[in-house]
Amino acid sequence: MFTTEQWQAGKKIIETLIQHGYEAVFVGGAVRDFVRHKIANDIDIATSALPSEVKFIFKRTVDLGLAHGTVLVIENHVPIEVTTFRTEGEYTDHRRPSDVKFVLSLEEDLKRRDFTMNALAMTANFHLIDLFDGQRDLHNGIIRTVGEPTDRFKEDALRMLRAVRFTAQLGFSIDSLTLDAIKLCSNDLAYVSVERLTAELEKMWLSKHLGKGMSYLGQSNLAKHLPGDFQFEDARWKYLGNPQNVLVCWSFLCLLQEIPNGSDLATIFKLSNELKQQINHLVNATQIRCERLFTIDDLYHFEENILVQAELLSRVLCSDSQQIPVELIVQRKQSLPIQSFRELVISGQDVMEWLNKPGGPWLKDMLSQIEHAVLHQKVANNATKLKEWIMNESNSEV
């Protein structure tokens, strides 16, 4: 694992800083993943060097957040974040410190971090620095704050949702004192921006232990303080499995509502217009599938991915619906004569010439007739056959 370009670039940066008389170590999630024998490419370095000193030492740098001590160092074309050891002032808004002080002590820097598993540091020679029993908690699968949990969560309310997200990602459990503190501070989630809440939820949607994360979301009382009136605590989450799919999870959350409305959900959580459209399609397709089997028109209207996911969601939400193998749905979809209007071999210009009529509202209706006829195999998607059908059998008086 230590042989990736990112790790090698980081190792070179640390060695260079040490050669110049500064202390420097790997920190954060990369060290946590290294201890767990997982591949990590998001490499971070902490150092006693000030940002100005880091910029002086390295030829290629980018200012990322000098006020917070972070400089992006480009080593052998690999970008690595290098941040000065720091402590943080008072958190006046439950999210960000009022000021940052640079320090020379690694211990002071690690004390400000959220969880013990994220407060590990490692030298370029693989030597772990573990001041808060992070290795023990990693071994036991426990998420525990560094220091007093209530203090950590009062400083930054987002840490509470991060703890829950880590249960979904890692399959870990939250330490009882840490969980009690989250319950106590749960209403402070209101201080966190919707964008940050959405980002954490979407990381959960992509996780391998979604059921565990959703369970903790309810146990911690955080579900009650998320925006809108959505069913984060519905028992059916445990039957969803681990789709590891943002679209599926947002759509499932929407479908748990008495009257599903993907547009409202997208507005509340500030989702992109593209994702909103996809949610609306999947919600619509799932509602149809809960009522009946897909028709030819349904298969044509919805994308293959939407059809497959709707079938799977219907099995969770509508237990009495007849299950259809997803392979059969895909086969039926792919066997349609056309997959979209663009696949018609003729154009509106052809139709106008054949009927000797100028363009107008009638043309749109005629093209819809043609599309429907080809889809339902009333006529082959062949120019000669289509011309014959238009001249003799279509409702050409539209």
Would you give an account of this structure?
By secondary structure, the chain is of the alpha+beta class. It is 49% helix and 10% strand. It is built from 20 helices and eleven strands. The strands form three sheets. Strands 3-4-5-2-1-8-9 form a seven-stranded mixed sheet. The longest helix has 19 residues, at 273-291. The radius of gyration is 28 Å and the shape is elongated.
Number of strands: 11
Count of structural domains = 4
CA radius of gyration: 28 Å
Helical stretch tally: 20
Strand order of the largest sheet: 3-4-5-2-1-8-9
Protein traits:
seven-stranded mixed β-sheet, Hydrophobic Seed Protein, 4 domains, two-stranded antiparallel ribbon, alpha+beta, Beta Polymerase, domain 2, 398 residues, single chain, Methane Monooxygenase Hydroxylase, Chain G, domain 1
Chain-wise SSE layout:
Layout (H helix, E strand, L loop, with lengths): L4 H15 L4 E4 L1 H7 L8 E4 L3 H7 L3 E5 L4 E6 L2 E7 L1 E3 L11 E3 L3 H6 L9 E2 L5 E2 L4 H7 L1 E2 L5 H7 L2 H13 L2 E2 L1 H10 L8 H12 L4 H10 L17 H4 L5 H10 L6 H7 L4 H19 L4 H6 L2 H14 L8 H9 L13 H8 L5 H15 L7 H10 L6
Parallel strand pairs: 2-5, 10-11
Antiparallel strand pairs: 1-2, 1-8, 3-4, 4-5, 6-7, 8-9
Summarize the structure.
With 398 residues, the protein is α+β, with helices and mostly antiparallel strands.
